[in-house]
Amino acid sequence: MVMRNLVEFAIIAGVWIASLELLKSDVSVVMALTVLIVISLAKTAFFGAENIRQLAEATRSNMAYHRFMLLMLVNMVQIILSFGLDYHCLQTLSPESFSVVLKSPTQFELVFEFLYVSTLNFTFFGYGDVTPQTVPAKFITMTEIVLAFVTVIFLLSDFISLKESLTKDGGKISVDNSGNTAKT
């Protein structure tokens, strides 16, 4: 599991580096924006499916809740990192994409700014000090927020109830002829 997560972090970094290289090439802005949006959607689908797969696996294996939470924390960090790097690429391609107010930022400061934005988006705090300004920036931001909603609301809040519903007895409730309910 640790090795898989390390590989996933490496892939996220590799996609970011490849995206930056694409932006340096002679590809058109429209083509580059399309590629960034497709990459964003592909990552959203991957992370969504991965979270659901891990939820089902954790339930089947009767994983302890604290281990499941640690696993989800790693997934959340991957998602935040991934989208933060997407935002950085988008800003690199089209500086009007976000309302960033940094005077002559270094690349590190710019990447940090977008990791900050991604963290705020994922945690639903969104202070609004950096906001998406273009349709592609808004679209990619929306995909992160939807993924965060699915991850946080559905997966984390429903883990225990899902686990209970999939117990050996199935957690089924039956009603006998007299109207009494009983767990069967």
Features of this protein?
single chain, two-stranded antiparallel sheet, 184 residues, 5 helices, mainly alpha, Helix Hairpins, disordered C terminus
Task: Report on the architecture of this protein.
- The chain has 184 residues and is mainly alpha-helical.
- 71% of the residues lie in helices and 3% in strands.
- A two-stranded antiparallel sheet has the order 1-2.
- It starts with a helix and ends with a strand.
- The model is unreliable at 171-176 and 179-184 (pLDDT under 50).
Estimated structural class: mainly alpha
Tell how many strands the DSSP assignment holds.
Answer: 2
CATH topology: Helix Hairpins
CATH architecture: Orthogonal Bundle
pLDDT averaged residue by residue: 83
Spatial strand arrangement across the major sheet: 1-2
Head-to-tail CA distance between termini: 35 Å
Give me the number of helical elements. 5
Strand content: under 5%
| The top level CATH class name | Mainly Alpha
Form type: elongated
SSE arrangement, N to C: HHHHHEE
Radius of gyration: 20 Å
Number of domains: 1
Major sheet: size, sense and barrel closure? Answer: 2 strands, antiparallel
Low-confidence segments, given as residue ranges, are 171-176, 179-184
Q: Roughly what percent helix?
A: over 70%
